[in-house]
Amino acid sequence: MVKVSRPDEEKYWANFSSSGKIAWKTGTSFGNRDAWAVGITPDYVVGIWAGNNDGSGRTGLTGISAAAPVLFDIFNTLQPVRSEWFSMPAEDMSEVEVCAVTGYLAGSNCDEHKKISVKNIAYKNLTCPYHHLIHLDSSGRFRVNADCHDAGTIRSQSWFVLPPSVEKYYLIQNPGYRTLPSLRNDCSNTFLSADEMVVNYPRPKAVISLPELTEGNRGSLVFEAAHSNLSATVFWHIDEQYAGKTTVQHQLSVSPEPGKHKLILIDDAGNKVEQEFEITGT
Ligand SMILES: [Zn+2]
Q: What is the pLDDT of residues 214-249, one digit of tens each?
């Protein structure tokens, strides 16, 4: 976290340089409702949250602009006790070969490897799950298999495949990411079919507390789903009541009453996913 500084944030990083060495991280929730920053040194941990007490969001309310300046102001008032930075526990570390793209232990389908030092207990059986050997037709545009395509002309190659729930975020920072080619229509589906549409939040059978923030204002939750087809439209229903539709960014702000509910998602191809959840209110 000592290296945390995105290009668009460099100017802030320069502003904070008087604060000495701090490992820090910021975050901003959906709709600019929560802006937070956490920093750590060998002496102190400081956490800052900024937001409105009624839970409403505000443009420009981000971790880097609203919470980080306060974090660094506070660190500037704190006297360091220890002069040394954290030392690496070399005796508990070992060198491992990892996938250069994902950082997991390199698997047989990972093309680029690199060696890094890690804690001995950190890397047990965590082989890269994202590089898969896939089989393409001669055009390279469609996935095929030996049941639907001449085995002699199938092109097999390693492909970096993220779960749909992660893919959309990765694409924002990595426009060069190539989504998994579609399975050709005449080939039976053998890959990712179970993951076509998933609910990320709420989790299955989640019990969520949604208290009244001010009288008559229960506040809201942001439900989130992911779809492996980036052009899909998802129609959201709570207890059979239509709640809205989403494309690309499958996030929907909802405010369910206390009680047990069923979230039902249907995409434009007719696929359906259901998830039960419960709201408690105080
Ligand atoms: Zn890999």
A: 777 777 888 988 887 777 889 999 998 999 999 877
Spatial CB neighbours of 3, under 8 Å, sequence gap ≥ 6: none
Quote the ligand 1 centre to 250 CA distance (angstroms). Answer: 27
The average confidence (pLDDT) of the chain is 83
Minimal CA–CA distance to 178: which of 92, 83, 274, 101? 101
Distance 116 CA to ligand 1 centre (A): 14
19 CA to middle of ligand 1, Å? 37
What's the token pair of residue 196?
């076509």
The C-alpha angle 117, 19, 85, rounded to 5 degrees, equals 30
Predicted pLDDT of residue 7: 38
| Residue 107 φ/ψ region, left for φ over 0, alpha for ψ in the -120 to 50 degree band, beta for the rest | beta
Secondary structure of residue 108 in the 3-state scheme:
coil
Q: Which 3 state secondary structure label does DSSP give 46?
A: strand
Q: By three-state DSSP, how is residue 25 classified? A: strand
Tell how far the Cα of 110 is from the centroid of ligand 1, in angstroms: 4
Name 241's bridge partners. Answer: 238
pTM for this structure?
0.50
Each residue's pLDDT tens digit, 46-68? 999 999 988 888 888 889 889 99
Strands 45-50 vs 35-40: parallel, antiparallel or unpaired: antiparallel
Distance, CA 170 to ligand 1 centroid (Å)?
15
H-helix or E-strand containing 27? strand 23-28
Residues with CB under 5 A from ligand 1 (ion): 99, 102, 110, 128, 131
